[in-house]
Amino acid sequence: MNAIIIEERMDGISVINGREFMTDAKGGFVPLSLVKPQHKLEDETVRKIIGFAVNLNGEIARFRGHTMTDLGSLDALIAQEYGAKIGGAKGNRTYQTIDGLMKVQVQVADHIDFGAELQVAKSIIDECLNEWSIDSRPEIQSIVTRAFNTDKEGKINRSEIFMLMRHEIDDPRWRRAMDAIRDAMRVTGSKEYVRFYTRKVVTDEFKAVTIDLAKA
User: Fold this and answer.
1) In tens digits, what is the pLDDT along the chain, a chain of 216 residues?
2) What sign does the CA torsion over 212, 104, 107, 146 have?
3) 199: which residues sit within 8 A by CB, 6+ positions away?
4) Among 35, 66, 89, 209, which residue has the least CB neighbours within 10 Å?
5) Kind plus residue range of the DSSP H or E element containing 113
6) Strand ranges of the sheet holding 13-16, from the earlier edge strand across to the other edge
7) Exposed, middle or buried by CB within 10 Å (0-12, 13-18, 19+), for 11?
8) pTM of the model
9) For position 207, what pLDDT does the model report?
10) Cα–Cα distance between 157 and 139 in angstroms, integer?
């Protein structure tokens, strides 16, 4: 019985006992001669683009790592040598060149979830809405509906919750509900975002150096 020798090539072609095949989406081997030319051309183009994309993704990851290392070393040096600290208590920092034409910003965004107190807040808010006139606060009712409607992952709309908390309403129950929302907040983690800005002269507005394919 002859052994089956399979050679996997980088171009997506498998050579089995000297014959060329391509693997379809079901895992089956299709003789290269039966692959339509336009499908082969499409395959080659996608593989080329993905190759560049994977390499670029690696470069961006390394760039971010080097950036955070450089800024961390700068922070440590300034703290050690001068007893000073860049940024505030939350961790947001801005670094700028002397000529004012370049800056790097590090922003720390908290990941917030809500505990069981949120349901207490919802019941109090519903009580308020039931007693208030339907026409008196339609904008509040709309925000409440959007805030507590869960998405496909079963999570509430955080931005609408915060929008709800901006409304000052002179009702002790409403204030209790807002306190319950604050008590429900749980900071479950944080993430640092690094942004880069340049301008030609100091009178210009800063323009972001985009490392986002959709905005480049």
Assistant:
1) 566 677 777 788 888 888 888 888 888 888 888 989 999 999 989 999 999 999 998 999 899 899 988 999 999 899 888 888 888 777 889 999 999 999 999 988 878 888 888 888 888 888 888 877 655 666 777 778 777 776 555 567 777 888 888 888 888 888 888 898 888 888 788 788 899 999 999 999 999 998 876 665
2) negative
3) 101, 205, 206, 207
4) 89
5) strand 102-114
6) 6-8, 13-16, 19-23, 29-31
7) exposed
8) 0.61
9) 93
10) 16
Supply 176's token pair.
């209790």
Q: Could you give the 3-state DSSP secondary structure of residue 79? A: helix
Question: How many Å apart are CA 44 and CA 154, to the nearest integer?
Answer: 40
100 residue type, one letter: G
What is the full DSSP assignment across 9-32?
Answer: -TTSEEEETTEEEEE-TTS-EEEG
Q: Pick from 78, 87, 164: which is nearest to 126 by CA?
A: 164
Distance of CA 90 to the CA centre of its chain: 19
Residue 141 contacts by C-beta under 8 Å, 6 or more apart in sequence?
Answer: 129, 134
Longest dimension (CA), the chain: 88
Report the helix count and the strand count for the chain, using DSSP H and E.
5, 8
124 phi/psi in degrees, rounded to 5 = -70, -45
Q: What is the rounded distance in angstroms from the CA atom of residue 27 to the CA atom of residue 76?
A: 53
